[in-house]
Amino acid sequence: MSQPRQWSRAVYEPDLRLESLQANFTTHTFARHWHTHYVIGMVEDGVQSFWCRRDTYTTPRGGLILLNPGEAHTGEAARSGGGFAYRALYPTAAHMASAMAEFGRPDAAPEFTKVRVDDVGMAEIVGRLHMALDASASLLERQSRWLGLLVALVRRFGAAPLRLPRAGDEPLAIARARAILEERYDQRLTLPEIAAQVGLSPYHLLRVFARATDLSPHAYLESIRIRHAQRLIAQGHDLASIAYAVGFSNQSHFTSRFRRVVGITPGRYQLSRRKTARS
After folding, report:
1. What contacts 253, CB < 8 A, 6 or more positions away?
2. Per-residue pLDDT, 81
């Protein structure tokens, strides 16, 4: 029986200035090494083994690996065989500073106390970020999920006790944020930009916005874009132009998000509108 194909791919996300790795390893063994950045690793399938802090750890499917800068470590498939599918994110000191700023400590470098974590909820957060990166989700979504992950990790697994500011109602800031999303739905909005305009920190905006609307800013924006797409479809515009007109980065992303919100593809929605108009 042949083993799964071994491959690896380095990815750079320019908007987030984030390096990452996607791989399926069977026989590859990482030599003992260290990084100047942090490592947030997740095993997607199989079982991985690594050495760090003078001990050996095993990482099953869904397991997380958290490494601080300068920590020597290795990595390979566990002795049980079969290889493992793996993803790693490489946050820089600047990334971590943006997360620590939410606690009022932008100059403090966080330190993870555990190198191996089994946490279903955190693994889901990591997985959703990878899905957003793979799907070329909106910049607002990618920034929101990235900052949300970093804040959650340093708060949960950092050595220093951290506390976020109390999340109040902030009605004026929420009203202004909603107005920005409504007025500029077709533009490439960023989380820091919106936060600055409403006078809140980026993560605090995410918290109070969700508290007020039960939606993240990017989900709220997505609903606005889909609403305008439905309007343009009803007016007879072609689908290819609609995707870009309402702010989606590509046709595929527009189609998948439209279906997720409306329940059918834009093409089927267009066809139903045409049938209704003829009847």
Report:
1. 135, 136, 137, 243
2. 66
- 245 exposure class (CB count in 10 Å sphere: 0-12, 13-18, 19+): middle
Write the pLDDT tens digit of every residue in 8-25. Answer: 999 999 999 999 999 999
* CB neighbour class for 263 (10 Å; exposed up to 12, middle 13-18, buried from 19): exposed
Tens digit of each residue's pLDDT (9 = 90 or more) over 124-147: 999 999 999 998 899 999 999 999
217, two tokens: 């800013």
Shortest CA distance to 158 belongs to which of 212, 235, 220, 102? 102
The answer to whether 187 touches 180, Cβ cutoff 8 Å, is no
> What confidence tens digit (pLDDT) does each residue in 55-109 have?
999 999 999 999 999 999 999 999 766 899 999 999 999 999 999 999 999 999 9
116, with CB counted inside 10 A (0-12, 13-18, 19+), is: middle
How many CB atoms sit inside 10 A of residue 250's CB? 11
Q: How many residues does the chain have?
A: 279
Contacts of 261 (CB under 8 A, 6+ apart): 222, 223, 226
How many angstroms from the chain centroid is the CA of residue 138? 10
Which candidate, 104, 187, 195, 76, places its Cα nearest to that of 143? 195
